[in-house]
Amino acid sequence: MRFRTLQLSTAAATTALCALLVTASASGAEAERPRTISVSGQGEIQAEPDRALVTLGVEARKPKMEEARAEVAKTVEAVLKLTRDMKIEQKFVRTTRVNIQPEYNWDNNARERNLIGYYVSRQIEIELRDLDKLGQLLEKSFDLGVNQVGDPRLDSSKRRDLEREALAKAVADARLNAEAVAKAAGARLGPPRTISASSGFVPPPMPMMKTQMMRAEAASDAAGSYQSGQMGFNGTVQVEYDLIPNSTP
């Protein structure tokens, strides 16, 4: 009977010791838990684009395939010559292969389709490194027979540097936000623990004519009426700082 009582006492002591260790561990974890503050920051840079990707399309519909192909080929060759005359480096000029599709109409009476002709198309992609030539390129391409034009995709050769500059502004903005919050909370900032960042850019609206009346002017006059606008480069960061309580006097 005495032996049984000793076993129970030992078990109770072990349970008490475990509870004490758990409590001490929780208190230590609470004491070591870092005090942090997490804030976001925004940065933006405005800059003018200095290059554009221009897509010019040529389409033709003719009863005979050879006629449609000849018309498209003639216009494409004229545009390629234009790019050479404008001193555009030919490594920045690309043409797609010819697309040919037969076209039919449906005869309800005969319950059959009839071949009425052929649709032929081709595209020319030009990476323009001098935006002063954009208006001239578009206007003269219209005159040569180009009948499909995509919106010029404007870009900057300094895009990566501008995005980094926007990120740097975002980090500075985040620190100002964190300092304001820390001061209001009666604390000060320590070093950053973690930073996550993202960047991007917003292209300007497609270049437009200054006035619609200028479309009636000569190509040489209208060529100078295209405006590219500005691009917006933005950066966003999320920063976690150590938060250090101010010492009490």
UniProtKB/TrEMBL annotation:
It holds the Pfam family SIMPL. Keywords: Signal. Transmembrane segments: none annotated. Gene3D superfamilies: Protein of unknown function (DUF541), domain 1 (3.30.110.170), Protein of unknown function (DUF541), domain 2 (3.30.70.2970). Residues 1-31 form the signal peptide. It comes from the Bacteria. InterPro entries: 26kDa_periplasmic_antigen (IPR052022), SIMPL/DUF541 (IPR007497). This is SIMPL domain-containing protein. It comes from Steroidobacter gossypii. The lineage of its organism: Bacteria, Pseudomonadati, Pseudomonadota, Gammaproteobacteria, Steroidobacterales.
